[in-house]
Design brief:
The complex is a heterodimer of chains A (349) and B (320). The mean pLDDT of chain A is 89. By secondary structure, chain A is α+β, with helices and mostly antiparallel strands. The longest helix of chain A has 18 residues. Chain A is built from eight helices and 20 strands. Chain B contains 14 helices and no strands. The N terminus and C terminus of chain B are likely disordered. Classes of the chains: A alpha+beta (349), B mainly alpha (320). Chains A and B meet through strand 6 and helix 4 of A and helix 10 and helix 11 of B.
Amino acid sequence: MAIEVRNIVKKFGAFAALDHVDLKVDDGELLALLGPSGSGKTTLLRIIAGLDWPDAGEVSIDGEDALARGASERQVGFVFQHYALFRHMTVFENVAFGLRVQPRAIRKDEASIRARVKELLDLVQLDWLANRYPSQLSGGQRQRIALARALAIEPRILLLDEPFGALDAKVRKELRQWLRTLHSEIHVTSIFVTHDQEEALEVANRVVVMDKGRIEQIGTPGDVYDNPATAFVHGFIGESIVLPVDVSGGSVRLGGRPLNIAANGAASGASKLFVRRHDMQIGPAGTGALEGAVRHVRSFGPIQRAEVTLNGGEGNTVIEIDAPRDRELQAGEIVGLQPRRYRIFAAQD
Amino acid sequence: MSTETGLVTSPTQLRAYAPAADLNVSSPASRKEVARPRPVTSPDNLRTEPGPIRFVIIALAVTFLSVFVVLPLVVVFAQAFSKGITAYLATLAEPEALSAIRLTLLVAVVSVTLNLVFGVIAAWAIAKFDFTGKTFLITLIDLPFSVSPVISGLVFVLLFGAQGFFGPWLQSHDIHVLFAVPGIALATVFVTFPFVARSLIPLMQEQGTQEEEAAISLGASGLQTFFRVTLPNIKWGLLYGVLLCNARAMGEFGAVSVVSGHIRGETNTMPLLVEILYNEYQFVSSFAIASLLAMLALITLVVKTVLERRLDEGQPPSGD
């Protein structure tokens, strides 16, 4: 089911959690809401679910006005960060809950409920835990049960609030893949909230980057990584080198010294130069737009990370560069640096 | 009078400091919890003191307990049975005693029922919602604990007495509140109100609202959410509050004494009867009734221990 959010405003006292947010989610999408804490992503999710109400704006699910219905009538599957499993019920009863509370007229008989729960437990591969209590499960198992419980009501959309946030790194990785696979099987329109960019980029079809109650960029994982629309997105996603520069009439200056790079149409004034760590090419001294002294080199995996003190930067500007392992680097060596790809954004404030 | 007021003023943790069944003057068992506050953690591994010091401390505690708790309890039962078991049973079968037992049970049922409903509602409101005046409401719930029960009783005299606020109106409609069962019930409800609410608030606050939100998003109605999710989650805490509420309702002396009027066979509860009989030198009868209250205290204590264990586990036992 498609979801459309129009001009949503939500304030908590003077704090604007959501500041005129518009969002369209297509049928069958797996969308990530990505942002730092306090960016409003969870609030947006809760408003779509009906667990919070906006001060202004509209929400429609499959063309219907969702705000006209309460959370219990929206048929939205919601998965909580801390699982929120019913602690006094077995796993089986947790999953069956949504089926048991249906109005008598449409409630399934006991045999069908049992069959459906069994089917869902099979789907999340935990049928052998049916008679356990939530306290007897691991975090990853709890979250899969929470998902099975949400799916029991055949939700029109599935909303996941930091679904893997409370799990350790290894389980998180496994569950990510598992969620992707599951989504490609059941194909229900899903939105998940995360502050973990890797999670968003790895799992979602599209990523919505949020900050301070606003949407900064919506795009495919490739888009938001390669073509960040704003300084915030560039800084938030992936590791970036950020240098304060001045743009005037097409030339870019760092600490008063002109840099041999094009302004790419950036407006004049105080700006910030963003370069991905791996997009800074290291060459011999005297080549490249920047120059610096290697301070320290650490090697791991396919890369080596060099700390370089820039010449001509304000004070001792130290940047970290990811270089391929085949380029020999020595501490103390003077190197030339040339950004292969970069972006210039106007500096805020 | 009741010694627990100082103990339960802690705003968050009634459980850790809750008084045992407070059975007032007649039952020295009520002093038990005062002498021996329940340790919050079990300090099995804390062997910091040398052996002799440990021995002295333990001996002191045991001696103190024996003198102030066990001894009075033994005295109550010894006095009650001093003329033999036949005399004991005969004195309990007297109409006055039966009437007092009946009245005490009636008042306990009424006040526990009312406080169960109001306590759950109050705790629900405080734990699950934010609203202006919340702090005030929490303070208000504690009021019966911080006011002397005699004053609580007097308030009802001032309200419903012949010279009281509603007195003339009540008289003209021939409704008897004071010196009658309704007055006793009202005073008891007032005095015992905090128990249920107080034992639920920390529990409900700790549990938060996520399970309720999950239930609602799964399509449950408000009532379904309450009976299927909220209530099962608080049931041990609720039972705990009800238990303490009941013990206090049956044992309440001060407030009830002020509003009861001491009409024999009509408005005397068990604690009141104990005092009257004692003052009339009917020691066997007096201590027989007292022994019933003491037994209630012992039962309450056992059940309370079981419930506390349940509460600490916070989970149903595994494998059932």
